[in-house]
Amino acid sequence: MQDPSPPPIKKPLYEGSTQFKNWRYSHSRLAQIRSTLNEAAVSVIRTTFEAYEPGSSANVTFLTADEESLLVTFYATMITQICGRFRFPEEVEATAVSYLKRFYLKNTVMDWHPKNVMLTAVFLATKTTNNPISLEVYTSHIPKASASDVLDLEFLIAQSLGFEFAVWHAHRALWGIWLDLQSLPDTTSNSEATRSPVYTSAVSHVRSSRLTDAELVYTPSQVALAALSMADRDLALKWLKSKQDKLRSDADHSPNIMESIDNITNLIRKHGHAPDVEAVREVDRRLKLCKNPEKVVGTKAYLARQAEEDKKAEDRRIRKADVQKEATTDGDPFGEVLARSKPGLVDYDDDDDD
């Protein structure tokens, strides 16, 4: 008899998620995506400038891909402030930051300013995480914000996300690791009290990781373990050692885990902080000069674009009206008259009273 085949390796639930399938990249791939988006945007905007004012693009200094990322990172820190103002749970903040970063893997800040995208990302995150807030209350607590500022971009953001709203977060993975540590045989009974500062520190590192590309490159559990390692490396190694049997049997899914942890740690230490405010102001000042004129209300390009969109909408309305008219002229809009009952069939209206 042949030996029975080994049971198939059960894949983690995370590997079945849209995040694993569609929102994970290498560092080089991220750089390529952002560079390609930036170059395409600069080309289109330069052409638009020249179409309406020949020679006007010669003195414009367009943003680079790194400068765009700097601006996105700054507004990711603003999400933390907004969520703190409304006392939204951690899930809302983390989800909104993910939405912001994913949006700018499909779009450029020279088309859509991060300030407006940020406001809509937070509002959308409150709904997708089941922490809803009314639009009126939301905008009333944000200076100079109107309902249209939020709603105008909601569909665009959802579309850019591929309508994939679920996000797997590192702070949840960290909590799972922390619970695992409490259940280890050699864990003392008062460990939770003595190590709670460690957990608080690890959560702080997870929050810092949101200002980096960590979640776009690594899994939530890897980011969480790196954050724990930054808070207490011995504790992280202790948890990892408790999982060694599984890691050995599932080697294909855990290649050199400590190398990844160290890479994430270096990434958080290098980039996990708010950008310099003066540098952000300079980029934002230049953005006002190089923003796509088709997106700036009142410009010739904007008015021409609006006229074009209005014409397309009118054409669609006319075509729809023509279809409806054709449907009514081809026959009775309520359908054909029902055929009379054939002779010989039972007449259910007949009664036998006489």
Structure description:
- The mean pLDDT is 84.
- This protein has helices spanning 18-22, 27-52, 65-86, 90-103, 114-128, 135-140, 147-151, 154-160, 170-182, 191-209, 214-217, 220-231, 233-242, 244-249, 257-271, 277-290, 300-329.
- It has two domains: 14-168 and 276-300, Cyclin A, domain 1 (Orthogonal Bundle), CATH 1.10.472; 170-271, Cyclin-like (Cyclin A, domain 1, Orthogonal Bundle).
- The radius of gyration is 29 Å and the shape is globular.
- By secondary structure, it is mostly helical.
Tell me the CATH architecture of the largest domain.
Answer: Orthogonal Bundle
CATH class of the largest domain: Mainly Alpha
**Fraction in beta strands:** under 5%
CATH superfamily of the largest domain: Cyclin-like
Question: Could you say which overall geometry the principal axes of the C-alpha atoms support?
Answer: globular
* Overall mean pLDDT: 84
Helices, by number, come to: 17
Q: Structurally, how many domains make up the residues? A: 2
Fraction of helical residues: 55-70%
* Cα-based radius of gyration, to the nearest Å: 29 Å
Helix-and-strand structural type: mainly alpha
Question: Do you know the CATH topology of the largest domain?
Answer: Cyclin A, domain 1
